[in-house]
Amino acid sequence: MKLGVLLPTFQNNADQALAFAEQAQRAGVDGVFAYDHMFPIGSPERPTLAPMPVLAAVASRLPLTVGTLIARVTLVSTAQLVEQFTTLEVIAPGRVIAALGTGDKLSKPEHDAYGLSYPSPDARRELLRDAVAALSPKMPVWCGAGSPATNAVAREFGVALNLWGVPADAVRAEVANGPVTWGGQLQGDVASTLSALDDAGAAWVVAGTPAPLDALEEWRRTH
Length: 223
Known about the structure:
9 helices
């Protein structure tokens, strides 16, 4: 099982994110990921960094895998989204993960704040399907889990389904249908949680911020 961390991108500049990526590499983490938000959920007054420039900066400095968690298919056109990932792949060949999602009611206020349309669930799934179809031949793709209809897009194309914050038993159940990755906050007994997710078949675990680098490093030493 590979380990990833989400970068601290709810900042005014990228200094903290770049420094954290260096710390993650020293801790033996396999990849770093970035949110795709125009402001933190529920906090429109706070800043955020666009994911692609930050990931490009990390990829040009460090030999880590880089990816989004997750890039919403409703924020830019499918062609632009595909081109963003394709360009990132030029900078970091073989080291890019395109984790994509449809967004949900929690992210809708971002659309409202910036006057962006918010398509119906079926329309968002079609955008997701188009993006997965375009990107999956080029690089690893993950789909953010949601409704059964959304999850079916991942299974249709044989790409990973990214589950957020679910217990290991839910990962084990979904692994029967295809590849699964996991993201969420790692708290409490981190080593036991990681081992349980590993045993359940998760291909990646991506720790949300603040990521417990010491605990990740210790687990990596013994696995």
